[in-house]
């Protein structure tokens, strides 16, 4: 659907002169003013979207993964989580509703309103997180984890969906990486923060591990309230830009991929999108990338303990790999957007993950095993925004974007289940079956990446043929490799 021309021509004045030299100056001035207008508009969007969404996702990541810190802070003993597979069950149950509710949530996002829906989700899971500090047994802890998964389900796919509607295709990975690394960087220090909270043990008769859930839950509720006042909507529904800026944003997205204005959601369209094999390929790739990320998030302190470090040292040593990952993810995202290329940089980071897993799993040196955590954490963390950008660059229409982001992120939940079940308590401290399974996932990721890349190369060659004028419903739509 076409959008009306941008009002930039009326918004930016043009100097009228009679001489040819003055005409050139006038054109130069107009170009400079347009450039200033564009930079000011995009900076305003970045500041409105990315910091808050990044912090909210950081909170979501902390709330779902602080179980590991609480475990070594005394929860395992109090709730008897070391019996059988109780810890793995509690960890993995979170992902069942997390997977189930993502697609329905994305499909109704526009109707419910971004601000209302996302803020409600944040407050709801904050309440559940707080309640986890008062559970008397592992069964109620498992129930709270189910509720946590249900309320977090609609959040991450909605964020990805929203961000990808605001930017052109080769701007999106930097933005996805920006909000994602906020969670990576914050998550790196979350174990230290949780350890500090655990030192409150005994205050008000509450054990240290419970204070982790109580205080972090209260912080989540506070951010949920802030989100209701500040979070933004889709470009065509936003209220923080001027009319000229909104028209400018819609025009550039329409020019880039032809889906600035949302299409009508129908059951037929949803089914059609779900039958696209490429969405399943992206989803499996995302699952493979998230598996090591979840494994590190849930088990890094436990793995470090197995290397011989104390509880305190394990918590402190869990932070540096996340700092390294932050730098690596941003660097790869910048390079990927600069060169308008995704697959090669995803492949490099998947290989980094592979090397890291081999070092952590099989090296006899604790130092090299620790280096392996750096590489696998950075590689898997970088593949996540890379795959999200790769997939979003190669779909058009709001309905397909809603379906694809929900489906892809839900497969990330499957990766979480996989990670929490193959890293078994009985395999402590080296977790070799988990290492083998995670290595196999990286090989699968590389295979799927090769298949989609070959397919897109062939499609881009065919697009020049006169009898095949469109791709993804748009004229001259070239797939991003």
Automatic annotation (TrEMBL):
Pfam families (UniProt xref): MFS_1 (PF07690)
Domain Major facilitator superfamily (MFS) profile: 49-458
Membrane topology reported for the UniProt record: Multi-pass membrane protein
Entry's localization field: Membrane
GO CC entries: membrane
GO molecular function: transmembrane transporter activity
Chain ranges passing through the membrane: 49-67, 87-109, 116-134, 140-164, 176-197, 209-231, 279-303, 315-336, 343-362, 368-390, 402-423, 435-457
Keywords for the protein's UniProt record, in alphabetical order: Membrane, Transmembrane, Transmembrane helix, Transport
Name of this protein: High-affinity nicotinic acid transporter
